[in-house]
Amino acid sequence: MEIYRTRFKKDIVCEFIPPAYTKKLRRGEPAKVIILAHGMPGLPWGKSVMEFWSKKGFWVFFPRYRGTWESDGEFLKESPEKDILDVIDELPKGFTGLWSGKVYKVRPSELYLFGGSFGGPAAILCSRDPRVTKAVAFAPVIDWEAPSEEEPMDKLGAFIPKGFGSAYRFSKKNWTRLSRNEFYSPISLLPSFPRRDKRVVVPFDGKKLLIFHAKDDESCYYPCTKDFAKKTGAKLITLRTGRHFGFSKSIEPRFYKEIKRFLS
Question: Which pLDDT score, from 0 to 100, does residue 37 have?
Fold first, then answer.
């Protein structure tokens, strides 16, 4: 199956694949859509996941956050959830296949977000948007100040420029802001979280959220996820073992079974 590329809002490079229908797609036809929010750091590889969900009848989009990999801009200058919302904004307006020049318009009748690890907050935070039907998070970060044996924030922030070079382009200032839960933080939007600002916060709808997390995850702190699910009413599926994982798990039979039930 061929995977195409486009740009959204000039900056965001995004891979996409239409649903593997046997009938010819009509421009602007209502469609089922999945947007993938990937983890960080790591290679943005989602071919098998994209093909799997395309064969299930979905348009699948896999954007690169601003300031990462092929996308322009500065990473963490704004909350990465905005990149996902910008993709959602552009789908019905039209986007162009960069190689073919073909213009596509996708009008979602159902819109789902899958976010893994670092991408988990994107799925969770964007689920508050009324255009999002449901969201699935895989081992998400809930609290950036929570302990992480494998990836403590200070060590991770120093490692990424050395290990990934210009693949992630961010300032130390904004990394520190992230580490303090100043943005892109599900826990910071709970009523119990002490906030300095007086902004109106859109509450989470737990019925729109499915979360998978393993108890032995040493990268993203499981107890935070458990507490978050309890406070929001999100459906949490706890694995006794499994360590840290991302949205590639969505194509494994036991995960797919739960996701299919949740999306229906």
Answer: 98
